[in-house]
Amino acid sequence: MSLLPTYIEDDEELEQQEESQTPKEYEIDFKTGQLTGNIVEGLEAIKIWIWLVLQTPRYRYYVYTWDYGNEFEDLIGQGYTEEYIEAETQRMTEDCLSVNENIQGISDFSVSMESDVLTVSFVVNTIYGDIEIKDQQIAKPTAA
Q1: Whose CA is closest to 53, among 103, 125, 112, 3?
Q2: What local confidence, expressed as pLDDT, does residue 144 receive?
Q3: Is residue 50 one of the residues assigned to a domain?
Q4: What pLDDT score was predicted for residue 44?
Q5: What secondary structure, in 3-state letters, does the chain show?
Q6: What pTM value is reported for the model?
Q7: Per-residue pLDDT tens over the stretch 3-15
Q8: InterPro entries from the entry (predicted)?
């Protein structure tokens, strides 16, 4: 007979199972932004998660936690110096990607700003391998 209720032990088992699961996402055609109907796992799932988090402004949608998304639109069109934009963009990128436990870090970071479009490129180091993000554009949303 156990001293602890069985539901507590079951919760611990569930947490261990969740931690060891391979990430899964619905596949997205990056050119159109549309779902393909397939489910991908591992490195491809992380690639899709990264694309989504870079497309989603933080704090805007109630369906996401406050840890999900980015704050890049705070930099666009504000007249900051190139050095400040580069440093803040790298910090914000590391911040929004560090939420995923499968991501270990980023490297080879570069950023450029033209008009109201921020373009970033970097390599994401994951537990499944490296993912190269090239010329990801983030534009300031237009007022509706």
Answers
A1: 103
A2: 46
A3: yes
A4: 92
A5: CCCCCHHHHHHHHHHHHHHCCCCEEEEEECCCCEEEEEEEECHHHHHHHHHHHHHCECCCCCCCCCCCCECHHHCCCCCCCHHHHHHHHHHHHHHHHCCCCCEEEEEEEEEEEECCEEEEEEEEEECCEEEEEEEEEEECCCCC
A6: 0.76
A7: 655 555 555 665 6
A8: Sheath_initiator (IPR020288)
What total number of domains does the chain contain?
Answer: 1
54: domain CATH number is 3.10.450.40
- Domain of residue 32, residue span: 20-139
* Burial 69-91, CB ≥16 within 10 A → b, else e: bbebbebbeeeeeeeebbebbbe
Of the chain, the percentage scoring pLDDT greater than 70 comes to 82
Query: Token pair of 67, please?
Result: 């840890």
Query: Could you tell me what percent of the chain has a pLDDT over 90?
Result: 25
77, part of any domain: yes
| Domain-located, residue 8 | no
Ranges of the chain with pLDDT below 70: 1-20, 139-144
The residue type of 17 is Q
